[in-house]
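I'd like us to work through together how a protein chain folds, taking it slowly. To get us started, please write out a protein record for me. Go ahead whenever you are ready, and we will take it from there:
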Amino acid sequence: MTYGLITKFLARPGERDALTDCLLLAAERMPRASGCVHYLISTSDEPEAVWVSEVWVDQAAHDASLKSEDVMALIGRARPLIASVAEQIPLAVLGGKGLPT
């Protein structure tokens, strides 16, 4: 079963653009991440909200991606910009356009 995760971050006041820049850098590195199918960064009408939508071949691939040096460095860079993780929902992704069969 494919593993998905949707996370809503709330940036510290005035830091949403810096947080999205950091997360977009992470997205640029995802083609090198084994097992990453989908990694999107989005914003909404909430002034400080940033949404990250991920799909991985399995949870182990996701967990392994967090251990690479470059990802750990980006996490360290993003952490001070984040006021809170407002919501995080793990998903069992069943299918849809763009997913591997």
Remarks:
- Helices lie at 16-29, 59-65, 69-78.
